[in-house]
Amino acid sequence: MENNSTGSKAYLFSIVLVAVLGGLLFGYDTAVISGAEKGLQAFFTGADGFTYTNGTHGITCASALIGCIIGSAISGFLATNLGRKRSLILAGILFFISALGSMNPEFLFFQRGVPTYSLLIVFNLYRVIGGIGVGLASALCPMYIAEVAPSNIRGTLVSWNQFAIIFGQLVVYMVNFFIMGDHTNPIIESIGQGMNTVLKESDPWTISTGWRYMFGSEAIPAGLFSILICFVPETPRYLVMIKQDSKALTILQRINGQAKGEQILEEIKNTVTEKTEKIFTYGVLVIFVGIMLSVFQQAVGINAVLYYAPRIFGDMGMENPMVQTVIMGIVNILFTLVAIFTVEKWGRKPLLITGSIGMAVGAFGVAITFGHAGLEIVTMLSIMVYSASFMMSWGPICWVLISEIFPNTIRGQGVAVAVAFQWIFNWIVSSSFVPMFNMQLSGDENFGHWFTYGLYGIICVIAAIFVWRLVPETKGKTLEDMTKIWKKK
């Protein structure tokens, strides 16, 4: 229902819901590899013309991250020159192309079902294309939501994007489970020097077909997103920057009501004096804070836990590591909801500081108890505390702040730089976890375990101090207030 004095909440929520689908695709694309990677590995291990080693498989599994870095790095340029909406349409198209291409990389140029080195390169290119879509969506979805949302509920609405990411990961886990059905993953045996062989008793359907359906399943939500995003408006902030004030006013009044819409338009016009400004127009500090928010979100080590949860719980001696992984997934969803419903009451800084302390307690708990007989439950609970603390703080709130803290005229550039650093440190943490976790010192098998989580715990403490000293509170402030905050500094 639309009201001339208060605006239409239904209209606002409908366009935010479409933007949030981009977050779901973000989660879907990054997690789809978890179910498909064994079948994919077995498929290319059967190649005659080249040897598909563990190292090659690692690069293949992580190839989408290269696209994520590229996509986030160019998101500012595209957001400024194409607009937020058209850039999101492009992201949706890239998701769609990647899904179909990864499912059938032989299309047009190769014989289906025959693994070759050239086919491997083409497959990785399709995954990189999907990664570019992820990189664009990771930067643009929070930006889009922040630029259409009223200031009093902006944090809540942007936080739903993180919920969609986690939910997208759970959806693809379920989709992969149903695709597998009664089939089983191939049995891969090491033959030394990073090489493997696929045992004859392996399920041939999983090797030839299963992984294709998993990657192809993304085409459905990607196609839906690409169509629906065409029906949402461009953001009022961007419309003012390209001198389309009347269109901006129409959208603002529909969301906020007639009088409030006119007031917000004047505030936007007062801060948008030209289409763009140089990225350091408001000083180095705002860019530094944006970058470090992204760096800390990854450096605290959460993705190492999420990506390698079954390995961690297995090393703890748990009989069925997937049970603990599923429990952790449910806990993550619940605590993401805690952030969504408290971010406008408690504020951004209190949640980040509380989450940092909770993560530090959990990480130090793992470091102290890991590998000690009889303390397995304490270790597991410490990991749960660590993960839950992240989901109620750094998970969603980092995206909220990155979408808020940059002044209007440098938001596209600022978000692009910050999110690019996020993907770079995602790759650093993810690739360094296994060698750190398996380190030994003087025959101590648990050295790597306590060193890794001890390091993450120290970083969590530093993150809390960083937020306390340098990050401004943005609760209740308009995006136009950011100009005043950073000009004072």
Overview of this structure, please?
The protein is mainly alpha-helical and 489 residues long. 74% of the residues lie in helices and 2% in strands. It has 20 helices and two strands. Strand 1 (188-192) and strand 2 form a beta hairpin. Helix 1 packs parallel to helix 3, helix 1 (9-45) runs parallel beside helix 5 (154-180) and helix 4 packs across helix 17 (394-404). It is globular. The model has no long low-confidence stretch (mean pLDDT 83).
Write a compact overview of the structure shown.
The chain has 489 residues and is mainly alpha-helical.
What is the average of the pLDDT values?
Answer: 83
- Side by side, the strands of the main sheet go 1-2
Helix run count: 20
Helical fraction: over 70%
Low-pLDDT stretches are none
Structural class: mainly alpha
N-to-C CA distance: 42 Å
User: What proportion strand?
Assistant: under 5%
Number of strands: 2
* Structural Rg: 23 Å
Q: Spell out the helices and strands N to C.
A: HHHHHEEHHHHHHHHHHHHHHH
What is the approximate shape?
Answer: globular
Largest sheet, in brief, is: 2 strands, antiparallel
